[in-house]
Design goal:
Blueprint: H1 3-17, E1 24-28, H2 32-46, E2 51-55, H3 58-67, E3 80-84, E4 87-88, E5 93-95, H4 102-111, E6 115-120, E7 133-138, H5 143-149, E8 156-157, E9 167-172, H6 179-187, E10 192-195, E11 197-199, E12 205-208, E13 214-216
Parallel strand pairs: 1-2, 1-3, 3-6, 6-12
Antiparallel strand pairs: 4-5, 5-11, 7-9, 7-10, 8-9, 12-13
Length: 228
């Protein structure tokens, strides 16, 4: 991974950590951009900020503990959460789940008063066709049946299971697909726990730059705010 991308993620992470105020409960995402946010938050904690983190994966839990961020369980709501993304389009449709934590990420995002998405410029795409893959979390017993039902989307099962003991299928959508419609279809299949299509406000997508700056992907209210 290039130094430019590392610096861009660090900038987005610092911008996200700046939104955390004293006493907040904070959702901690999974992946490289989210890890940058966790590191930036840890710097503020070391300087005296009081907050409680709620991680979305074993990896994020381990990193937050190592860096000294106090952790808690998901009880009640969260004030803010931050996480990375695989791709973001101009409508605020976001693909998540490359790290396999999409179910916990959805739960934490929905529990948060504000959900921040941390990316760098290559993750902002004209269409999700540029990414092409929709992750789906499935009950292992039914994974074969789900794959048969969605065979037209060329499902590929990943090795191993997620932190929640779920199988992950990667669906490959043909160019020009209606991603929202496909996600609705997938959600209705028995055995599917969740999919990786999120809907966010573009004003909450923080695009880090290699020079240390960070910009929103669009104006507040620039896309659907319902995450589903």
């Amino acid at each position: 991974m290039t130094d430019d991308r590392q610096r861009a993620w660090a900038a987005a992470g610092e911008a996200a950590a700046a939104h955390v105020q004293d006493g907040m409960r904070v959702g901690l995402g999974t992946g490289r951009a989210a890890a940058a946010g966790i590191r930036a938050l840890a710097v503020r904690v070391a300087a005296g900020l009081r907050c409680t983190g709620v991680p979305t994966s074993a990896a994020s839990t381990a990193l937050a503990r190592e860096l000294g961020i106090p952790l808690g369980r998901l009880r009640g709501g969260l004030d803010v959460a931050f996480d990375g993304a695989d791709a973001v389009d101009p409508r605020g449709l976001v693909i998540k789940g490359a790290g396999g934590a999409l179910v916990r990420e959805r739960i934490v995002a929905d529990a948060s008063a504000r959900f921040l998405v941390l990316v760098d410029a290559p993750k902002v795409v004209p269409t999700l066709d540029d990414w092409g893959t929709l992750p789906v979390a499935v009950v292992p017993f039914g994974a074969g049946r789900v794959a048969e039902t969605l065979s037209d989307l060329a499902p590929a099962r990943r090795r191993g299971l997620s932190d929640d003991g779920l199988a992950i299928l990667d669906l490959h959508l043909p160019p020009g697909s209606d991603w929202a419609a496909v996600a609705d279809r997938v959600a209705a299949v028995t055995g599917v726990v969740d999919h990786g299509l999120f809907r966010v406000d573009l004003g909450d997508v923080l695009v880090g730059r290699p020079d240390g700056g960070c910009d929103p992907a669009g104006p507040p209210g620039g896309a659907a705010t319902i995450r589903g």
